[in-house]
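Thread amino acids onto this structure.
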């Protein structure tokens, strides 16, 4: 887990004996290998980069996968080079804690802080309803915002305990102050359906 001054990112999946991947479900026969996941949030509850019926959520998790056989540079130039799974996070009293993740967040509050986290399987980050999602071709949400992503955004949020969102809001940016927001504004549909 690493604080890069803009978000908290978890990577290293390429070193796992069995690297997590996604396939099928509208992605065709291609396999997309998990390369990293990161968070988007804000200080005021509109921390998701996607909305449902105009509604934002407390945070949004992006599980970033790269098409098998492509380098990162090639994926940036390929319309379906990445498959990103977006998951809305919402605070709830009965929310499920993510202990390993929360313990890591405590240790990476400053820019360039890093910590090894164990026992954080990507499947525990998912919402309970895996059948309802939106799929569209779009862009990365960070510069250069390449049109190289097949997006899958779950409709139903994952409910978390309040501590996770509170910890994200303590993460400091390059200026040494808590990141107010790291959310790209909602984009128009452009040519997307």
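Threaded sequence (193 positions):
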């Amino acid at each position: 887990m690493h604080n890069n001054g803009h978000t908290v990112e978890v990577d290293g999946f390429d070193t796992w004996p069995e690297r997590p991947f996604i396939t099928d479900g509208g992605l065709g026969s291609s396999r997309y290998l998990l390369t990293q996941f990161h968070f988007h949030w804000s200080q005021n509850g509109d921390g998701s980069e996607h909305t449902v019926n105009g509604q934002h959520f407390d945070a949004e998790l992006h599980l970033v996968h790269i098409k098998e056989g492509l380098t990162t540079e090639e994926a940036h130039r390929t319309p379906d080079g990445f498959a990103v799974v977006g998951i809305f996070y919402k605070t709830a009293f009965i929310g499920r804690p993510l202990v390993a993740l929360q313990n890591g967040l405590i240790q990476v509050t400053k820019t360039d802080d890093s910590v090894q986290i164990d026992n954080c399987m990507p499947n525990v980050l998912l919402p309970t309803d895996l059948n309802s999602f939106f799929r569209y071709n779009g862009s990365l949400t960070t510069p250069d915002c390449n049109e190289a992503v097949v997006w899958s955004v779950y409709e139903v949020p994952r409910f978390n305990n309040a501590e996770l969102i509170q910890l994200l809001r303590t993460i400091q940016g390059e200026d040494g102050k808590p990141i107010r927001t790291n959310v790209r504004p909602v984009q128009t549909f452009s040519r997307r359906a």
